[in-house]
Amino acid sequence: MGSWFRERLGLGGLDYEIPESANRLTYMLGGLTAFFLLVLILTGFYLAQFYNPNPLGAHDSVLYIIARAPLGDWVRSVHYWSAGAVVVTVVAHLTWVFWRRSYTKPREVTWWAGVGLAGLIFLLIVTGTALRYDQEGFEALAHFATGGELTGWFGRFFTEGFTISTPLLSRIYGLHTSLLPLALVGLMGVHFWLIRHLGIHASEERTTVFRRHVVRLTGVSLLAFAVVGVLAVAAPEGLGYPPVQGVEVTKPFWPVLWVYGLENLLGVWGMILGPAVVGGFLVAVPLLNRDDDGTPGRHGWVGWVGLALGAVVLALWLYGVFGETRQHIGM
Amino acid sequence: MMTRLDVGILAFLAFLALGPAEAAAHGDATLEGPDGTVGAGQGITLSGAGFAPGESHRLVLRGTLDDYELGTATAGADSTFTVELAVPAGARPGQYRVVALAPDGDEVATLDLPVTAARETAEEADAGASGSTSSGRSGPEARADEIVIERSRAGIEWGVIGLVIGLAGGLGVGLFRRS
Lengths: 331, 179
Known about the structure:
The structure holds 2 protein chains of 2 kinds.
Chain A: H1 2-9, E1 17-19, H2 29-48, H3 55-67, H4 72-100, H5 108-130, H6 135-150, H7 168-198, E2 206-209, H8 210-234, H9 257-266, H10 270-288, H11 301-322
Antiparallel strand pairs in A: 1-2
Helix pairs in contact in A: 2-4, 2-8, 3-4, 4-5, 4-8, 5-6, 5-7, 5-10, 9-10, 9-11
Chain B: H1 4-25, E1 30-32, E2 38-39, E3 43-49, E4 56-62, E5 67-74, E6 81-86, E7 94-101, E8 107-116, H2 122-129, H3 155-178
Parallel strand pairs in B: 2-8
Antiparallel strand pairs in B: 1-3, 3-6, 4-5, 4-7, 7-8
């Protein structure tokens, strides 16, 4: 049967040689990220059948998903835990690639595609939070509106005043379910194409085939999915109360807590400066370190800046977790 | 002489006519109510037309999770009624429908009614604007905690979840070992 599929689907194209080290977990982090993004798309499609993107019905529709829709509670919790898993794997993947100096020539564009993907994942996280439309979700939406006002013409789309025909929540829903996933899939295609044609950044001899990597990666991904499935049963995601406008009493989804910590220090501009500084550094890395020597770990000053930035983000995250809840909007 | 085909066609047409006949049994009743949204606890006026004269109808506020009995209304000889009712103060904000139910339980007419959180009274709004610190806001307080939701799963749901997790785990182990 395997040969039947092999012949008709061109699976022989997967039999190109790669180093054995590609079968270690550190070389599977990108693939794991892609797997959980696929889980998010599939579970998201199911949730979209029951979700009402109008502000008057949004919160109720989420309650319906939890309490009435068939498998709604579990699918929503799988969606939630998979989002967390994506954050863990993408940060680990980015850290590993940075340490390996896999952004050096000729892999600069691969790196930039990856940074773009990380940015899209961040946007998917924050837009997804808003869709809950409970107190936490509404505060996320209010941050979008405030950020839109701060950035003038550039951020007009994120303000309620952009159009009177559709509320901001519905437009955020459109972003989360259409434009961002489309951009994600497109950029993933670019990223995978470049990895295929430039090869995995590893100096060992090529003693195994890519098909074996795919089989092993699929096994690891399914095991990770089983863990997420159990978590979705044991610790299902909840929902806050319907929102009250004009106050901030919640903290955001955990991957965004470093931005929350920065807002505590700088005010609402922190939510723009923080991602801009981190994103700007990541984009600049291949330009700042153009040494052709691709030896892992030899980063020079760029590596120290990256390490310092990572430490600052971690410190801000811890401050966001343990620090006080504060009003940012209107500060 | 009627053939079996003729009888079959007539039976099919009679079956199709059941739907409109059943709808026609309750007439083309309509409900009208307030424009826009209403606050939880707010009084509303509902008007009905096209209802069976003398027939009492239950008026129910139907939401995503909860239903609330609003009251009953009996149409006069002119097939209309007007009633003053109140949206329950505990109604969760969201999209609702007011449904008029005939004595046999059929839905006779519906009206979309968005419900918002309980609103301030006019006096409290004025007191707030004048800077009075003694007035309290009647709206809900913002809450950071989560709603307690009663979760229950049917047996088949447990079965599907168990199957998916089991398959994923089993297949995962198998593929990992095979590689």
